[in-house]
Amino acid sequence: MRHCQIDVDKISSLSMKSLSISYCRSNLDYRVSVFAPLLVSLTLDCFRGRTPLLESMPMLETAFLRLGYACRDFCVNYYIYQGFCGGNGARCVNCLAYKDGSSNTVLLGAIYNAKHLELISPLAMIIFARDMEWCPTFHKLKTLLLNDYWCVGPDYDALTCILKHSPALEKLTLQLAPEGQAPKLEIKGSYSSVERSTEISEHLKLICVKYYAVDDRVLQLLKFMCTYNIRFSFE
Questions:
Q1: pTM here?
Q2: This protein's superkingdom (predicted)?
Q3: For the chain: N or C, fewer Cβ within 10 A?
Q4: Cβ–Cβ < 8 Å for 152, 132
Q5: 3-state SS, residue 59
Q6: Closest Cα to residue 183, out of 230, 145, 228, 142?
Q7: Does residue 150 sit in helix, strand or coil?
Q8: Do strands 185-191 and 230-234 pair parallel, antiparallel, or not at all (unpaired)?
Q9: Inter-residue contact 228 to 207 (CB < 8 Å)
Q10: Separation of alpha carbons 191 and 138, rounded Å
Q11: pLDDT tens digits, residue range 36-68?
């Protein structure tokens, strides 16, 4: 499905194995739900409107999830408050909507069985941050690509959380580049042979950091990753 108007309550199939929804839109005030329990491959790319609600996908192997600027699930005051405003008394309606005590996730709770994930979002979007409060364990996840949404210092809470919940992870790619720009440089890292962190996957063999230019953000991220006894080498 590409460049489609989707104004239905649910997309449902008991046999579908592959689904791609790219640059589609919905004008509904509620989320379109996706029910496809046999799905193996999923692409959800730059949906315009409220982010679709994914129901359980236990057979899923590969997923590419990219939220775009047309997504309605964003923090109105993100740049003013240097973070999401829902927890500091601000009156952003979108943030406050996620402080209802519900433990239901929108995206992550459905894709926890995937082996290969790419999760990309602009900084102001709420969905992944909200889902991470009830982060599932990705028991089968082997490769993971994250953009700079997940790499916000100084605490790197989102990155730390997903790494701790990915016990089988073998390759991690962190992609830092301005919107619309492709990374031009790459640095690779691996565990120190004598000092492995017990907080992240013992199977993690390769960490790739792709970036547009060396800046303080890149240097701080590399410094943080070194706290996990990961050592980098420039090529």
A1: 0.90
A2: Eukaryota
A3: C
A4: no
A5: coil
A6: 145
A7: helix
A8: antiparallel
A9: no
A10: 21
A11: 999 999 999 999 999 999 999 999 999 999 999
